[in-house]
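Reminder to self: tokens first, then the designed residues, so the page reads top to bottom the way the pipeline ran.
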């Protein structure tokens, strides 16, 4: 496992440096195009480096807080959803994480989840209310194991930094292109600034235009290519923790059938979710521009793990489904991989029908938003909003007076 983490770190560093070089080249040529080759390129390089540094510092120390805030995620206590806390604790122990991740819920019906943070000591797992009300325990365990694996594999910091790099490149490119467009879009005014007909200035401006168009595309391709591999690795690590590939496969199947939009997601955070939250009904994203591998492919790989739940079993299933000999998992990990059997499914799994789904979702959303629940002796569950300040409430069915206390459920 240590070798896998080190391999992840090396790939993250390479990607970070390559995207950094793209950003600096972009700043250098845009600075030369806007301010002239005599000092303008150096100034553009300086501003690109400054932007990169500032956003990287913010990402390292407050990136997860920003992402959670943008995603409208609310931190919750164990009383809100005991099963979720139990499953996260189980997977934290199985993965040998040094600290329990914080748990957040997004009040949206679309089922999805992601992990964020700086390191395993400072991490968070976020799920939507729709995910909790749609999945049974085995399926929930599969999703949580996947997200815990992102934390253990040191993916969370990479995703934050890579997103910042991509965002910086897009911002600089769009500002330059918009400036060219609204400023007249003519190269002649740049040529006239310099002596000798402005040939050097014209060349720099053309290069800047080409970079401004291509740099965001190249950065996205790099970002997405590595992101997709990390999803496969998180699947492999996740089923190793649960010893039950069908749990994650079934969960992914339910998420694939989701037709609802996740409004809290955006282009920057999309790559962090377990499935692409921006995929619209009827839209098919190409393999080159998708942040995630095809869900159907991930499900087939998991369901081909009939011999065990170890890394070797996942690698064999991966090669069988993909018809490739590519090594997704390092040989050093495969050579030392222990045999892990597949456990039986949990007993007494509740079948969640549409009626139960709506009831569970409604209660969960109310709980997250601070509602209290009082069970009257007549069998009616009273849902008390946080604005209700009286110590007692009358049951509308039987007329009994029930005491109200904060956190009642």
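Designed residues (409 positions):
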């Amino acid at each position: 496992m240590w070798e896998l983490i080190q391999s992840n770190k090396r790939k993250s560093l390479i990607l970070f440096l390559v995207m950094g070089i793209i950003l600096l080249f972009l700043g250098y040529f845009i600075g030369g195009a806007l301010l002239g080759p005599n000092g303008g390129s150096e100034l553009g390089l300086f501003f690109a480096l400054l932007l990169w540094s500032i956003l990287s510092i913010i990402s390292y120390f407050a990136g997860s807080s920003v992402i959670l805030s943008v995603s409208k995620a609310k931190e919750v206590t164990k009383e809100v959803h005991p099963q979720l806390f139990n499953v996260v604790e189980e997977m934290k122990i199985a993965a040998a994480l040094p600290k329990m991740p914080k748990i957040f819920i997004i009040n949206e019906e679309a089922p999805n989840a992601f992990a964020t943070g700086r390191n395993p000591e400072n991490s968070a797992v976020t799920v939507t209310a729709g995910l909790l009300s749609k999945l049974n325990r085995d399926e929930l365990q599969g999703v949580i194991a996947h997200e815990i694996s992102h934390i253990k594999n040191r993916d969370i910091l990479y995703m934050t930094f890579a997103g910042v790099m991509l965002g910086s490149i897009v911002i600089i490119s769009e500002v330059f292109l918009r400036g060219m467009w609204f400023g007249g879009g003519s190269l002649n005014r740049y040529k006239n600034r310099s002596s000798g007909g402005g040939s050097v200035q014209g060349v720099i401006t053309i290069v800047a235009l080409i970079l401004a168009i291509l740099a965001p595309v190249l950065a996205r391709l790099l970002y997405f290519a590595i992101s997709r591999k990390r999803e496969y690795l998180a699947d492999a690590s996740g089923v190793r923790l649960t010893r039950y590939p069908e749990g994650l496969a079934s969960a992914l199947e339910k998420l694939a059938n989701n037709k609802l939009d996740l409004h809290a997601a955006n282009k920057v955070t999309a790559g962090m979710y377990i499935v692409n939250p921006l995929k619209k009904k009827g839209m098919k994203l190409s393999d080159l521009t998708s942040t995630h591998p095809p869900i159907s492919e991930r499900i087939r790989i998991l369901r081909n793990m009939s011999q065990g739940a170890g890394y070797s079993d996942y690698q064999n299933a991966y090669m069988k489904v993909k018809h490739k000999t590519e090594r997704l998992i390092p040989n050093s990990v495969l050579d030392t991989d222990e045999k892990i059997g597949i456990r039986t499914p949990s007993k007494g799994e509740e079948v969640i029908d549409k009626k139960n789904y709506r009831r569970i979702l409604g209660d969960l959303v109310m709980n997250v938003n601070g509602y209290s629940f009082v069970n009257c002796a007549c069998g009616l569950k009273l849902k008390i909003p946080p604005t209700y300040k009286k110590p007692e409430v009358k049951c509308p069915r039987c007329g009994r007076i029930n005491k109200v206390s904060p956190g009642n459920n």
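The radius of gyration is 25 Å.
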